[in-house]
Amino acid sequence: MESSRRNGDVMQDMNLAEDQIKALEENFMKVSKQPDEATLMLIAAECGLSEEDTAKWFKLRYSKWRTSEGLPAVCGSVKD
């Protein structure tokens, strides 16, 4: 993957159905922005996705959310 690609581009490349995106967004906003493994497994089952794809989506979405909040995209930065 090229480093110049934006998170939105990568998320679109995942080819998720509208109902999957809706379920992922609901979980992101209401349950956890960084779900633990057990929660991630439940969300993946709910959406019909692999745990790896679900984890990837949450990582990209969290990065996008942090950027929208004016924070660095990655946690642990000196600027946090």
UniProtKB/TrEMBL annotation:
This is Homeodomain-only protein. Residues 7-34 form a coiled coil. One of its GO terms (molecular function) is DNA binding. CDD domains: homeodomain. Keywords: Coiled coil, Developmental protein, DNA-binding, Homeobox, Nucleus, Repressor, Transcription, Transcription regulation. The lineage of its organism: Eukaryota, Metazoa, Chordata, Craniata, Vertebrata. Pfam families: Homeodomain. PROSITE patterns: HOMEOBOX_2 (PS50071). Residues 18-69 bind DNA. Its main location: nucleus. One of its GO terms (biological process) is cell differentiation. Residues 16-68 form the Homeobox domain.
